[in-house]
Amino acid sequence: MSDITQSNQIKEEQKWVGQLQNPQSSPKERKIAFDGIMRLHRQAIYSHIKKMVIDANDADDLLQEVFVKVWKNIAKFKNEAKLYTWIYRIATNETLRFLDRKKKKYGLKMNEVSEELMQNLESDEQFSGEEVQLILQKAILTLPNKQRLVFNMKYFDEMKYNEISQIVGTSLGALKASYHLATKKIEAYLKENYQ
Amino acid sequence: MKLEDIPKKQPFQMPTEAHFDSISDKIYAQIEKEEQHQNPNKTSTSVSIDSIKKETKSSPAFWKKPQFIGIAASILLLFVVLLGINKYDYTYLENITNLSTTQKIDFSEVSTQQIQDFLLDEDISESEVVSFMPENSDLEKTNIFEESDLNSIDSESLDLMLEEEYL
To answer: Does residue A77 sit in the same domain as residue A136?
Structure first.
């Protein structure tokens, strides 16, 4: 995306946020603004959630929950942070909470959760990788949830550490250490499971 | 094998725009439902976002608030009590007190005929009348006792009395 396009997009986004936060805005203006924000971010947020929960229906439900929360809490959003960072943060919290609830509900251990996610992955129609991609995903699924989250944001979404730090609320040093550790675990898994 | 050796690509295909639009519809439906739940009296509109406008909650006027009504009622009650105490007619109480402590019945003012009627009707013996007689009463001085002397009773009545006494 070029700098001009990105700059225009940011301006447009700020305008939408302003319309949503302004109590004088008409209902139509609000709908247009919210639609604009959803269209701009829904794919990235969906991808973020999907990589964590794997199951497509769960991802749909969580995406819905995230944007309902965005709608409800947009008045609290301060322009100090970027909007997508704020939405990512909501999505991350919702996803982690969902996984935690699921784990507790079925009384699963961490390796059992990983196995279930791997089974979902193998049967997932949206999965678009070759064998090595599948092995990589399986390796990622062996990581603890927060480590997996950090790895996905850094490796697939190519986010900067300071952005990830704002989203997960962890220090840069801890993030770097977490990513390094995750990489080592994944490489060990690949070495063991892929020729 | 290193991570760098694996071609980097997003692992999942993105759903179609139509799929995302259907999720958007669900989002609007959920928002509308929740807002309806929060404001049940509000008429629903075709687009739920209409209701995002934070309705300034029409708080009732201060004089309609329960706290105010409670305080006002207490003040009014206190006022009524104070007014009642202030305006109370003590003369009635004084009259009763005086009556019970100082005033005594003057039997001399009661006619003999009335007393006789009373004694006949109520079947009270002389001794009882005397025992009820207040101190300093001048009832004894009246001629009722003189008249009730047995000598003044005719023989027929006396016989009847004695007969009843020993029955």
So the answer is: no
Position B45 confidence tier, pLDDT thresholds 50, 70, 90? very low
Give the minimum alpha-carbon distance from A127 to chain B in angstroms, rounded to a whole number: 4
Shortest alpha-carbon distance between residue B60 and chain A (Å):
21
Q: Given CA atoms B115, B118, B124, B130 in this order, what sign does their dihedral have?
A: negative
Q: Which amino acid is at A145?
A: N
Nearest Cα of chain A lies from the Cα of B58 at a distance, in angstroms, of 16
ipTM for the whole complex? 0.82
| B30, closest residue in chain A (CA to CA) | A68
Q: List pLDDT tens digits, range A87-111.
A: 999 999 999 999 988 888 777 676 6
Pair of tokens at residue A146: 């927060």
CATH of the domain at A177: 1.10.10.10
Chain A interface, mutation test: which of B3, B12, B14, B33, most A Cβ atoms within 10 Å? B12
| Cα–Cα distances in angstroms (integers) from residue B78 to residues A4, B86, B159, in the given order | 75, 12, 72
Looking at A78, A108, A138, which one is the last position of a domain?
A: A108
Residues of the domain holding A177: 128-195
Model confidence over B89-101: pLDDT tens digits?
Answer: 777 767 666 665 5
What count of CB pairs under 8 Å joins A to B? 94
